[in-house]
Amino acid sequence: MGVIVEHFPLYAQGFLQTLRICLFSAVGALVLGTILAGFRVSPVPPLRAVGSAWVTVFRNTPLAVVLFAVAFGLPELGVNGSYFYFGVIGLTCYTAAFVCEAVRSGINSVSAGQAEAARAIGLTFSQSLSLIVLPQALRTVVPPLGSVIIAMIKNSAIVGAFGVGGDLFAQGIQLTSAQGYAAAGVLTGVLLGYLLLTIPGGILLGVLERKVAVAR
Amino acid sequence: MTTTSMIRMASVDKHFGELHVLRDINLEVESGQVVVVLGPSGSGKSTLCRTINRLEPIDSGIIEVDGKRLPEEGKALAGLRADVGMVFQSFNLFAHKTILENVTLGPLKVRKVGKAVAEKDGLALLERVGIANQKDKYPAQLSGGQQQRAAIARALAMKPKVMLFDEPTSALDPEMVQEVLDVMTTLAGEGMTMLVVTHEMGFARRAAHRVVFMSDGEIVEDASPETFFSNPTSDRAKDFLGKILTH
């Protein structure tokens, strides 16, 4: 366990790198996933097709394959950037598929009468979605979204292993394989780092859930 | 074609799968008229009401509101719906908004009225339906009758050309029916064009200019309330009235 104290700065760096990957990806995935969910329930068939195709592709592809495709595919298309951004883009696209399905289940939980009343007073589809349906969907969507985001935090380890480097998991690998520390001690430190993200995240979600809960 | 028709339906047909819910419906509602649609459940009267602002699309036929064909889904349809007020059986007030917010949302977001004006008008409407003191509560905190009156105020806030009522009192406890009917009767007296699907015979007698009786997706009778209630011509209407009036 001494390794954690000895190499604390390394762990701290790794923690911050993981936090950065997660913050960018979480914001990206929540925004993109919500838009995709809107596509999936829209009355416009091509938009529905885009939404379904996105979910089918990204939900059924292993994250490592998605990251591989982004990191090697985007430069082929003339898009260049650091591995950090490729990693974030890959994780965002992948997680957005799960966010989309969680949000869509929330949309379906809002009674059809709410959307009908919204349309009846002349709101357009996107207005009724953003002003009436989504705010109410949020209430049922917080717990499953929490699970999606926590899974994403853990998935960020794969991003780190994928050439981005410097995140918690990559630091752990560095300490065990390059510097020869015993895996148990090193990985305990890594685990603590992830728990430091996921547990407060879970508590925050609980608070949020209580805050948005309103009687129907 | 008369130009005073607020609603015109011609040869309208609609199926739900195998079920033929609307059969060759021809109906005109003149401006300022109050038409009550009666009929046994499953006769298609709610569906008829919901086709007029295209909450239910139709298979064939023509529907016009104020001389304009119902547009396809999109901005134009939203514009038409803004002019057609609708009151639902289950109220459908926006659950996450206060009563006043429910009433001001349409004017703010659709009519682009300023907030101060929308709130002033909204309060006046809530005053008119007798629930101004409930303005800051959420729908779930109100009684059914209060919710339905708020829903009527929400529809009126759009200054609609015509109001559709889809069984507005069917989900209410008996003692709350009257307060909603009173609001509707006042509205009818003020010259609002109304199409009301209901089981309230008293309202039909008192406020309607015409009674339309539907059965099995067809309009079977179309008469003044006096004629319909005292002298129904079809067997199906006689049977219906017999059951309703003797229970």
Second-tier CATH architecture of chain A = Orthogonal Bundle
Q: Secondary-structure element sequence of chain B?
A: EEEHEEHEHHHEHEHEEHH
Shape of chain A: globular
Radius of gyration of chain B: 18 Å
What would you call the structural class of chain B?
alpha/beta
Describe the model.
Chain A is mainly alpha-helical. Chain A has a single domain (2-212), classed as MetI-like (MetI-like fold, Orthogonal Bundle). Chain A is built from 9 helices and no strands. In chain A, helix 2 packs antiparallel against helix 3, helix 2 packs antiparallel against helix 7 and helix 2 (8-41) crosses helix 8. Chain A is globular and about 70 Å long. The termini of chain A are far apart. The mean pLDDT of chain A is 90. Chain B is globular, with a radius of gyration of 18 Å. In chain B, helix 6 (174-189) links the parallel strand 7 and strand 8. Helix content of chain B is 38%, strand content 26%. In chain B, the strands form 2 sheets. Chain B has a 6-stranded mixed sheet with strand order 6-7-8-3-9-10, with helices on both faces. A 4-stranded antiparallel sheet of chain B has the order 2-1-4-5, covered by helices on one side. With 247 residues, chain B is α/β, with parallel strands linked by helices. Chain B has helices spanning 45-51, 75-82, 99-109, 115-128, 144-156, 174-189, 201-207, 225-230, 235-246; strands spanning 5-16, 19-30, 34-38, 60-65, 68-69, 84-87, 162-166, 193-197, 210-215, 218-223. In chain B, helix 3 (99-109) runs parallel beside helix 5 (144-156), helix 4 (115-128) crosses helix 5 (144-156) and helix 5 runs parallel beside helix 6 (174-189). The N and C termini of chain B lie far apart (42 Å). Chain A binds chain B through residues 43, 111, 113-114, 116-125, 127, 131-132, 135-136, 214-216, and chain B through 53, 55, 73, 75, 78-86, 88, 90, 92-96, 105-106, 109-110, 138, 140, 151, 154-155, 158.
List the helices and strands and how they pair.
The complex is a heterodimer of chains A (216) and B (247).
Chain A: H1 2-6, H2 8-41, H3 45-59, H4 63-76, H5 83-109, H6 112-120, H7 125-164, H8 168-178, H9 183-212
Helix pairs in contact in A: 2-3, 2-5, 2-7, 2-8, 2-9, 3-5, 4-5, 4-7, 5-7, 6-7, 7-9, 8-9
Chain B: E1 5-16, E2 19-30, E3 34-38, H1 45-51, E4 60-65, E5 68-69, H2 75-82, E6 84-87, H3 99-109, H4 115-128, H5 144-156, E7 162-166, H6 174-189, E8 193-197, H7 201-207, E9 210-215, E10 218-223, H8 225-230, H9 235-246
Parallel strand pairs in B: 3-8, 3-9, 6-7, 7-8
Antiparallel strand pairs in B: 1-2, 1-4, 4-5, 9-10
Helix pairs in contact in B: 3-4, 3-5, 4-5, 5-6
